[in-house]
């Protein structure tokens, strides 16, 4: 089990995440989606450094070139709806990978601000003994990720799961660490320390789905 936070090393991804957080720039939905997508591309690239590679011979017009290529492509699963632009960054990089989709949403909060994660539409193929990248822009309480992993297990036992998020909350990360008893790598663009009384990440960036696609009723 390991934790990777992109902003712990200075790179251009800091600019993209800063724009995703900036409430003034968030008014431009196209720019928000584009920043999600290109942050996804960078995270996919960084994750790829941790895969297994094997040497292959490539025939060129003039000879043969040796090249280390990814041994097994990951299976990419995203949580709808907010995950779509972030997922697109991953599929741009792993362009030969298969994909799965899970619909998940919070139930209405009660008087104590408690809620459950409801799971809906699911389309997943065989993930047995495969590397799975689970893409969700925000990991707040960690409950939706835990439920998603339990759903994924119905389709096989992954060799390893990579949880990939733009912004995570430390509380959610600790919850997952304590409740997921399988090989998991956690990848966050940035990791924040707080959740508010409605379980939203602070400072976070707001509701990623609404910022991408408009407010829901």
Please specify the SSE layout and strand pairing:
Layout: E1 2-5, H1 13-21, H2 29-48, E2 53-59, E3 64-70, E4 75-80, H3 83-93, E5 99-106, E6 117-123, E7 131-135, E8 138-139, H4 143-152, E9 160-169, H5 170-179, E10 184-192, E11 194-195, E12 201-202, H6 208-213
Parallel strand pairs: 1-10, 4-5, 4-7, 7-9, 8-9, 9-10
Antiparallel strand pairs: 2-3, 5-6, 11-12
Helix pairs in contact: 1-2, 2-3
Helix content: 25-40%
Given the helix and strand composition, which structural class is it? alpha/beta
Report strand %.
25-35%
Tell me the overall shape. Answer: globular
Biggest sheet record: 8 strands, mixed
Indicate the mean pLDDT: 92
Total strands: the figure is 12
- The arrangement of helices and strands along the chain is EHHEEEHEEEEHEHEEEH
**CATH topology label:** Rossmann fold
Number of helices: 6
Our count of domains comes out at 1
First-to-last CA distance: 38 Å
**Name of the CATH architecture:** 3-Layer(aba) Sandwich
Regions with pLDDT < 50 over 5+ consecutive residues? Answer: none
Over all CA atoms, what is the radius of gyration?
18 Å
Q: Please report the first level of CATH classification, the CATH class.
A: Alpha Beta
Summarize the structure.
The chain is α/β, with parallel strands linked by helices.
Give an account of the 3D structure:
- This protein has a single domain, classed as 3-Layer(aba) Sandwich (Rossmann fold).
- It has 217 residues and is an alpha/beta fold.
- The model has no long low-confidence stretch (mean pLDDT 92).
- It is 30% helix and 32% strand.
- Helix 2 (29-48) crosses helix 3.
- The chain has helices at residues 13-21, 29-48, 83-93, 143-152, 170-179, 208-213; strands at residues 2-5, 53-59, 64-70, 75-80, 99-106, 117-123, 131-135, 138-139, 160-169, 184-192, 194-195, 201-202.
- A hairpin with a 4-residue loop joins strand 2 and strand 3.
- Strands 1, 4, 5, 6, 7, 8, 9 and 10 form an eight-stranded mixed β-sheet that branches.
- The protein starts with a strand and ends with a helix.
- It is globular.
